[in-house]
Amino acid sequence: MPKIRHKSTNKAQFSFGTLSKIEALMSQGHSMISAAKAMNTPFSSLQKRLKKNNSSEPRLGRLPVFAAVVEKVLSDRIKYLSSIFYGVTAIQIRKAAYQYAEELKISHNFDKSAKMAGRDWLDGFLKRNSISVRKPKATSINRITTFSKEEVQLFYRLLVDLMNKYKFAPNNIYNRDETGISTVQVPGKILSPKGMKRVGSITSWERRKNITLLCGMSAVGGFVPPMFIFLRKGMTLQLEKDIPAGTIYKCSDNGWINEHLFFEWLQHFAMYTKPSSQAPVLLILDNHASHTSLMMYDFCKQNNTHMLSLPPHTSHRMQPLDFTFFGPLKAIYK
Length: 334
Prior knowledge:
Elements: H1 16-27, H2 32-38, H3 43-52, H4 68-83, H5 90-103, H6 119-128, H7 141-146, H8 149-166, E1 173-182, E2 210-218, E3 223-231, E4 248-252, H9 259-273, E5 281-285, H10 294-302, E6 305-309, H11 315-318, H12 320-333
Parallel strand pairs: 1-5, 3-4, 5-6
Antiparallel strand pairs: 1-2, 2-3
């Protein structure tokens, strides 16, 4: 583990603001010694700074291996690679730092046997350059290449046109999405006796299966009772035990949504939202194939429901339910 060094000295307490005040006192006729005493600043430190015109923040300890300019080149490269979904690991940076120092013939105290910088250097480098260690989310190439400024601007232009034309009330603007929930929860850490060989935690099922959950939520927080889709041929009353009011349960051969089940959910949605010509409803959803059919179009047209599709492969950045509801739901469920 890196060493944690607590500061045990009163040195380097002054700041750039203190130096500015000292210079102001000296411009008023005070000597350097009297100005240093007035601001409780060591005279020798002040003399060195004024002589070298050094206005940087004071610091303790030895200087970093790399100069600030060299570190900036390295940190800019790290940030750029992260922005294009090719981020580097801490080990890779430590090895790169060692190679960098060797090629530039910079004196260093890195581990020559492992040929990489130490963890102390890495911690200091990250702190100095506003970089943190993060766990990335797996993102497909389709999502990376399709998510573009033009696609997003087109979506918002269509949204503005619909809002101007139909004047949707906030409680009539809905986002709809589905997600898969595993039947086997991931248990967290628990307390158990030392030396105990087997430590278990109860889960719903023995083998992992996904259950699809369909939700619809309005801009003001109102929601339509959800739909659950199970991977099975037929329903059983046991699955509907203790269900929330209004929830509907369906089955499919693969446990996912299909055109028939989406139409059933759309009827369920219309029953709860009660759209009318005076209060039309806007439904924002992804562009899954099950959502685009003549049957859906006719139903929405007859029931004053207007559907707006998110651009393809952009739901990971633009789907409200993913960020505000499904994420916290899965975290609590686990």
